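Supplementary Methods S3. Input chains for the assembly prediction are listed below.
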Amino acid sequence: MTWQTIGDALSIICALAGIFFMFVGAIGVVRLPDAYNRLHATSKCSTLGIMGLALAAVFHVGTLAVTTKALMTIVFAFVAAPVGSHMLAKAAHIDGMKPWDRQMSDELQQDKDRQAGKSPGNAPREMRLGPQNRASGGPSGADPTPRMSTAV
Amino acid sequence: MNGLRSMILSLAEGPAGHEFVAASHAPSPLQPVLFFVLELGAVLAIAGMMLCLYRMVSGPHLADRVLSGDTLAFQVVGLVILLTVRLESTVYLDAALVVAIIGFASTLAFAQYIGNLKRRTES
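Predicted structure tokens for the full assembly:
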């Protein structure tokens, strides 16, 4: 049980975690229903996957140059991925991309409607009411979420 | 000409004891397991690239294509880091960092473009 063996064991664990997150991110890019959901999978792939693989490189090689560059890559990925995902989601929303038809609420669109003076509310009606209100026949009963029922 | 050829070959091989190659040490008993994991990771990263290319071809919105390109860039980064672990070399991590930076910059540029599309078509 030398230090090299311990480093290789840690490297195997980190590499498996990184490979898992990279592949799951790629599957999520294909399988999730719309671009806002797909950005979620992209962020997992580019932060956690890169972190696992770079830590595997650190634990296996272990020289100062590899450690510095790997830590730079991790820090850059953790700074860059949320910024890029946020900018892309906001740009797609500005461009008017239709969200998934089973999405519960679009709060950015509600804020934009409220600022424009319109009554907020762009989600599908049965989604906005919720199952218990639909069963009682409308929003006349006690509604625990008044924000989601203002436009009815 | 012969000197140039030998110089290129020595650069490609990485001479023993050079600072770009980590110091040689006795391989640990876990090294075959690690190399198997690295090969598995290379196969899965290439499969993930295929999935990203599928989404890039069939994305309904422009944002889908851009985010699949972002994911593709980070799959390339992961593959380069796997190569770094396999060869125990330092020089490939520079390529990983550069690909990550270029992928981020292209995502920002495409996000600006998508955000200005509606205004550009209206005016």
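DSSP finds six helices and no strands in chain A. Residues 3-94 of chain A form one domain.
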